[in-house]
Structure formats: structure tokens, C-alpha cells
Write a structure and sequence with these properties.
- The complex is a heterodimer.
- Chain A is built from four helices and no strands.
- Chain A is an all-alpha fold.
- The longest helix of chain A is centred in the first third of the chain and has 26 residues.
- Chain A is flat and about 50 Å long.
- Chain B is an all-alpha fold.
- The radius of gyration of chain B is 19 Å and the shape is globular.
- The chains are: A mainly alpha, B mainly alpha.
- The interface between A and B is large, with 78 and 101 residues.
């Protein structure tokens, strides 16, 4: 592929990716939202996180078993209120150990 | 005033470090894949710097390799990244009033990961400096990883690559779980979304063939609409 064509593709992708990020930020911020919409947006982070995690987490490592091991460790650490950094390191460490041992 | 802003920015960067560490190996993989499919280093690094949206970049390289034209790739990119619309709309009302310039900058950095982290930080996410800090850390992880991948001859060792594959998911778990404690409404949303995601993944083929970007949007809209109908009142905050 030629560089000029690649540049054109990148610019096109950049524009169509930026617009959905930008428009709500500019148009919604000052409005007082109706209470139904406010509740709706309250729940968005939880729904987005859940659907990002499941079921893709199962296929994020070399084998589902190691992903489950790491995921459970991360879950345990998060449940005990550990710092996010340790949750991530613990999860990665769990996968590493599992794949080293089994 | 200036130092206060700068402090919030660095606090944000610190909070964003797990995202940067999660992005880095994925970006290395992207740089390698792009190179293997004939993209020059300049093109792949520019793509990461200007598009900054992982899934769509992998898809773009994939489509290029199968000989699909730029127009179709751009349309696909739009469809995959439309989900950020919902995330931007969620963050916008939480942010303190800001000039257009600041909002435009913050909007550029919205990804699945930065959104999730910022949305779960109610004591910080009104502050544009904090949000910009999180976004910057994530951005650096992504762009520097792409540079490394585009320059690198071999990938990371297999077991390390596999372990790092869990990084972002572990972070998602770390963000999600504390918010579920003591909130019946959030727990119901969690269970509902779990079921919907499973059906969308293993269910009838007309559902499973929907693209991931669309699935995230549809599932989120369905679950949150039901949530807003079932729990119209804000719950009393428990002492946490």
C-alpha cells in the first residue's frame, strides 16, 4: 500500500472515530437531563463493563482455564477492596503461574 | 490554580497507569500485525496516534489484508466506534462546565477503558484535569506500544503475552466489583447484562453474527432502559 493512500485511510478513520466521541460531549454537557435519562446513564458504566468482560475474558489468554484462574484472583482482590493496580498485577500473576504450572 | 490543575492531571495519569500497561502489549501486537500486512511504520503509528481505538485498528488491518477498499474500512470503523457515543453522553453531564476546547480534547481520549475508569471515580470525574491525565496515560501506552511493535523484529515471549492478555479484563473486574457491593440496582444490571452477553455470544446465529461494537451498544441500551424502568429512584448511598 502506498503512503498517501494509507494517510487518507488514517484520516478518514480518525474523523469517523472522533465524531461520536465529540458530539455528545459538546451537546449534552450543559443540559439538565430528565430523570429517566439520568438513571439510564447511571447504569451505563456497569452494563458496558459487564459486557466487555464477559464472555471475552475466557479467550483473552492461551487457555480458558488460566483466564478463569486469573479472573478469580482479580475478583477476590477487588472484592476485598484492593487497589486497582494490585487487582491487575494479581490477575496477570495468576495467569502466569497457572500456565507455568499446568 | 495552575498547580491544582496540574496535580489533578498527575493523579489522573497515576490512575491511568494500569490502562497504559494493559494497552502496551496489545499495541505492540498491533504494530507487528500492521507491519506483517504491509503497512509502513509511519502509517501504523499515525493510525494509533490519530484514531486511538484498538479494536477498529485491528479490524482495519485485517480488512486491508483481504483487499477491501478504504471506503468500506472507514464505514466499518464508524460502526465499530459508534459505541463511544453512549460513553461520551454518560461522561458529559458529570463533568463541570468547560470551554469547548477542553471538552474537545477530553472527548478524543474516550475509550472503553478510560471511560470505565473515569465513570467509576465520582470524586474525580468532574475534574477535566483528572480525565485528561487518565486519557494521556492510556494514549502514551497505546502509541508507544505501537512504535515498539512497528520497530520490533520479534514479539513478546508467548507466556508473557498470554498473561498480559488478561490485564485489561482484570482492570475491568477491579472497576466493576466495588460498585456492585451494596447496590441492588447495579447487581440486577450486572446479572441482566451477563445473561444478554451470553445469549449474544452463544445464542442463535442471527444474534451472534452482530459485530462486537453493535453488541455493546444494543446490550447496554436494553439493560440500562430496563434498569431505569425498574429502579427509577436513586438508591440511598450506604456508608462505604
Amino acid at each position: 500500500m502506498q503512503d498517501s493512500q494509507g494517510l487518507l485511510l488514517v484520516l478518514g478513520m480518525a474523523v469517523v472515530t472522533y465524531l461520536p466521541r465529540l458530539l455528545p460531549m459538546l451537546l449534552l454537557s450543559t443540559d439538565k437531563l430528565p430523570s429517566f435519562l439520568k438513571r439510564f446513564f447511571d447504569f451505563v458504566p456497569y452494563a458496558v463493563l459487564t459486557t466487555l468482560i464477559f464472555p471475552e475474558i475466557l479467550f483473552s489468554t492461551a487457555q480458558p482455564a488460566s483466564a478463569i484462574a486469573g479472573g478469580l484472583i482479580a475478583f477476590g482482590l477487588a472484592y476485598c477492596g484492593q487497589n486497582l493496580f494490585f487487582v491487575v498485577v494479581g490477575g496477570i500473576g495468576g495467569v502466569f503461574l497457572w500456565e507455568l504450572l499446568f | 490554580m495552575r498547580t491544582v490543575k496540574r496535580r489533578a492531571f498527575f493523579v489522573g495519569m497515576k490512575h491511568g497507569l494500569p490502562i497504559a500497561f494493559g494497552y502496551f502489549p496489545i499495541a505492540v501486537a498491533f504494530g507487528l500485525l500492521a507491519k506483517a500486512n504491509g503497512l509502513t511504520a509511519v502509517t501504523s503509528i499515525l493510525m494509533s496516534a490519530l484514531v486511538f481505538a484498538g479494536a477498529s485498528q485491528f479490524i482495519a488491518v485485517n480488512l486491508l489484508a483481504t483487499g477491501i477498499g478504504c471506503g468500506e474500512i472507514i464505514i466499518t470503523t464508524f460502526l465499530v466506534n459508534m459505541r463511544h457515543f453512549l460513553m461520551s453522553a454518560t461522561l458529559a453531564p458529570r463533568l463541570d462546565p468547560q470551554p469547548v476546547k477542553v471538552k474537545s480534547l477530553i472527548a478524543f481520549g474516550i475509550t472503553d477503558e478510560t471511560f470505565s475508569l473515569v465513570a467509576m471515580e465520582p470524586e474525580h470525574n468532574r475534574n477535566p484535569g483528572f480525565v485528561a491525565g487518565v486519557n494521556t496515560a492510556a494514549y502514551l501506552g497505546w502509541v508507544l506500544g505501537t512504535v515498539a511493535g512497528a520497530m520490533l523484529v520479534n514479539g513478546l515471549p508467548a507466556i508473557l503475552q498470554s498473561s498480559m492478555g488478561l490485564a485489561l479484563y482484570a482492570m475491568f473486574i477491579g472497576l466493576l466489583i466495588p460498585g456492585l457491593k451494596g447496590s441492588k440496582a447495579n447487581l440486577v444490571i450486572f446479572g441482566l447484562t451477563l445473561v444478554l452477553s451470553a445469549v449474544a455470544y452463544w445464542g442463535p446465529s442471527w444474534l451472534t453474527t452482530i459485530g462486537k461494537g453493535w453488541k455493546i451498544m444494543i446490550i447496554t441500551v436494553v439493560a440500562c432502559t430496563l434498569g431505569a424502568l425498574l429502579f427509577p429512584e436513586e438508591e440511598k448511598k450506604d456508608a462505604r
